[in-house]
């Protein structure tokens, strides 16, 4: 596994660069954050590397900072998010923007990424919110107190967290349906 590369930039474009390390050129897929730091061919560059290996493929993804690599790996831990999609998320913003979007449950940030639909955007938020320190609660708009408490307690019996429940209820667009129907739709969203 390759974890770090330190060398000179031999070539670059908006998607990848070739990094000459001791006479060997490594093709490294880069985010816009790395691309913005590239000044010219021949400049020295130190990259933190994620090595993606499949039966028919070996790809290297490069990041300037260890924190970026760790966030990239967290994104990959979400089912349905592969390296290309995770890198597309990094092209949408810097690490702090991504963490803010997760913490504030900003699904619009993620749905603007190609190949990433609303369901996967919500999955990213639900699965990573506690890992990135998200503390902002998601409002239960359109629910009165009695109804929201009933839904929360019903879904908690299935083992879901309050954050997961609130996120699933955000996906329900029709607020004029019965409480039972809202619980069923929330369970469908949560995969039960």
Automatic annotation (TrEMBL):
- Which Pfam families does the UniProt record give? HHH_5, RuvA_C, RuvA_N
Where in the cell is the protein located?
A: Cytoplasm
Q: Which gene encodes it?
A: ruvA
An annotated GO BP: DNA recombination
Biological role: The RuvA-RuvB-RuvC complex processes Holliday junction (HJ) DNA during genetic recombination and DNA repair, while the RuvA-RuvB complex plays an important role in the rescue of blocked DNA replication forks via replication fork reversal (RFR). RuvA specifically binds to HJ cruciform DNA, conferring on it an open structure. The RuvB hexamer acts as an ATP-dependent pump, pulling dsDNA into and through the RuvAB complex. HJ branch migration allows RuvC to scan DNA until it finds its consensus sequence, where it cleaves and resolves the cruciform DNA.
Ranked from the top, the taxonomy reads: Bacteria, Candidatus Gottesmaniibacteriota
Q: Which InterPro entries match?
A: DNA_helicase_Holl-junc_RuvA_I, Hlx-hairpin-Hlx_DNA-bd_motif, NA-bd_OB-fold, RuvA, RuvA_2-like, RuvA_C, RuvA_C_sf
Instruction: Show the domain comment.
Output: Has three domains with a flexible linker between the domains II and III and assumes an 'L' shape. Domain III is highly mobile and contacts RuvB.
Answer whether the UniProt record assigns the keyword Cytoplasm to this protein: yes
Give the UniProt keywords, A-Z.
Answer: ATP-binding, Cytoplasm, DNA damage, DNA recombination, DNA repair, DNA-binding, Helicase, Hydrolase, Nucleotide-binding
Descriptive protein name: Holliday junction branch migration complex subunit RuvA
Family that this chain belongs to: Belongs to the RuvA family.
For molecular function, the Gene Ontology terms on record are: ATP binding; four-way junction DNA binding; four-way junction helicase activity
Subunit: Homotetramer. Forms an RuvA(8)-RuvB(12)-Holliday junction (HJ) complex. HJ DNA is sandwiched between 2 RuvA tetramers; dsDNA enters through RuvA and exits via RuvB. An RuvB hexamer assembles on each DNA strand where it exits the tetramer. Each RuvB hexamer is contacted by two RuvA subunits (via domain III) on 2 adjacent RuvB subunits; this complex drives branch migration. In the full resolvosome a probable DNA-RuvA(4)-RuvB(12)-RuvC(2) complex forms which resolves the HJ.
**Region of interest called Domain II, as start-end residue ranges on this chain:** 65-142
Q: Give the main location.
A: cytoplasm
């Amino acid at each position: 596994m390759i974890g770090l590369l330190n060398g000179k930039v031999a070539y670059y474009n908006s998607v990848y660069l070739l990094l000459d390390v001791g006479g060997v050129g490594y093709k490294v897929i880069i985010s816009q954050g790395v691309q913005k730091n590239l000044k010219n061919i021949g400049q020295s560059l130190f990259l933190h590397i994620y090595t993606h290996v499949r039966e028919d493929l070996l790809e290297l993804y490069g990041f300037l900072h260890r924190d970026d690599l760790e966030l990239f790996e967290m994104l990959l831990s979400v089912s349905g998010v592969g390296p290309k999609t995770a890198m597309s998320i990094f092209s949408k913003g810097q690490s702090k923007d991504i963490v803010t979007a997760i913490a504030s449950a900003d699904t619009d940030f993620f749905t603007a990424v190609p190949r990433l639909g609303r369901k996967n955007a919500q999955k990213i938020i639900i699965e990573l919110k506690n890992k990135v320190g998200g503390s902002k609660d998601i409002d239960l708009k359109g629910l009165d107190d009695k109804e929201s408490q009933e839904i929360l307690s019903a879904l908690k019996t299935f083992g879901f967290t309050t954050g997961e429940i609130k996120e699933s209820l955000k996906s329900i667009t029709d607020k004029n349906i019965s409480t039972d129907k809202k619980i069923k739709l929330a369970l469908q969203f949560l995969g039960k």
